[in-house]
Amino acid sequence: MTLLAIILLLIHAMSFGDASDGCPDDIGTNLMYYNTGNTSLGSPFQQNWLDVYQVLLDHAPQAVSSEFSHGQSPNTVSGFALCIKGSNCKGCLQTIKANLDRAAPLSKGARLCMKTSTDVCYMRYEAYSFNFNCLQGLSSSSSS
C-alpha cells in the first residue's frame, strides 16, 4: 500500500469519527493499526500475547483500564485494555481479539478501538513497553 493510500484511508476514517465515542484521538474508530513485524505460530511471543490477553480480558471492568506485561526479552508483550461504554466489556474485547486474529494473526503488536451498537472498547498490545498512563484519561470519557 502506498503512503498516499494510507494517508487517504486515515483521512477518510477521521472524517467519519465521532468525537463522543471515547476512542483515543490518535486512532480512528473501528480502524486497526498493526505492526508489520510478525512472530510464528506457537512461539514464546505468541504464547505471551495469549497470556496477556487473558489477563486483560479477566481484569478490564467497565470504565477501568487493565494493563499487563509478561515474558522475558525479546518475547515480552505489553498490553492495555479499556472498556469505554456499554455493559458487555468482555464481549467487546473478545470481538477485538477476533478481528486482530483475522486481520493480523501473527503481528507483534496491534491496537483497535471498537465501536458496536452497544459498546466501545479499546485494546493494544506491543512487543515493547509503552506509556499506559497517557491512556488512563480515556476512562473519564466513559460517562454518557
TrEMBL record:
Record keyword DNA-binding present: no
Residue ranges of domain Gnk2-homologous in the record: 27-130
UniProt cross-references to CDD domains, sorted A to Z: Gnk2-like
Keyword list, A-Z: Signal
Signal peptide: 1-19
Pfam families: Stress-antifung (PF01657)
Record bears the keyword Nucleus: no
Protein name per UniProt: Gnk2-homologous domain-containing protein
